[in-house]
Specification:
By secondary structure, the chain is α/β, with parallel strands linked by helices. It has helices spanning 16-23, 62-76, 86-94, 166-175, 177-180, 189-194, 199-219; strands at residues 2-7, 27-32, 47-50, 81-84, 99-113, 119-130, 137-141, 149-152, 155-158. Helices cover 33% and strands 27% of the residues.
Length: 220
């Protein structure tokens, strides 16, 4: 399977998503929007991953609309799509939801798995949130914002960052430290960078990606 990964800025990388791709033996192509690379057509894509970025899904840039159109086509066709932060907001908006101001959850915070009730500590980095698309299943919520993750058909959108590694968190903090200083969390640079990343985050991420992969295999 060929995975297309849309990356919006240099400092928001695929992280553990790329580790999953490599461990499962898939091929991949990173589409670097900050280099004005071409958005692929839905016919080219087996599995679409859309990463985060500091821009808004409400911005009027032509590429944002094009990316959202691609997401809608992919999910409507039943192909797997995985959106992170901005990618999740794009997925929600592609299916009629709103992207609106939300509490600035920036840094490490607790998340609840709606299926199991388990609590997870994950990296947040956002000041906007999405309303839930019609017919979507709510997957994750936090104390400060209910709609943190959802599944719609074979599309999954997560407002937060399961893909985080020591390297990716250091890169986002270095590039966007001023945003961290606006967080509703009582946190700082050292605490954010030096936090030991819970091992279950990788396990849950891989499980979600495996589910999408299996759904794709079931289409054939």
């Amino acid at each position: 399977m060929n995975i297309h990964i849309i990356q919006h800025v240099p400092f928001e990388n695929p992280g553990l998503v790329l580790k999953w791709v490599e461990e499962r033996g898939h091929t991949y192509k990173i589409v670097r929007m900050y280099n004005q690379e071409r958005i692929p057509s839905s016919e080219e894509v087996d599995f679409l991953v859309v990463l985060g970025g500091p821009m808004s899904a409400n911005d009027s840039d032509k590429w944002i609309t094009q990316e959202r159109r691609l997401i809608r086509e992919i999910v409507t066709q039943g192909k797997p799509m995985f959106g992170i932060c901005l990618g999740a907001q794009q997925l929600a908006k592609a299916f009629g939801s709103e992207v609106i101001p939300a509490p600035k959850e920036v840094g490490w915070g607790e998340m609840e798995d709606k299926k199991t009730g388990n609590k997870l500590t994950v990296l947040h980095w956002h000041g906007e949130g999405f309303t839930l698309p019609e017919n979507a299943e709510l997957l994750y919520s936090s104390e400060h914002w209910e709609n943190q993750g959802f599944r719609l058909n074979n599309g999954i959108g997560l407002q937060f960052h399961f893909e985080t590694t020591d390297q990716t968190v250091a890169e986002i903090v270095e590039a966007d430290q001023s945003f961290l200083e606006q967080s509703i969390f009582d946190t700082n640079v050292d605490e954010t960078i030096n936090k030991e990343i819970p091992s279950e985050n990788k396990e849950v991420l891989f499980e979600l990606l495996d589910q999408l992969e299996q759904a794709s295999e079931g289409r054939k």
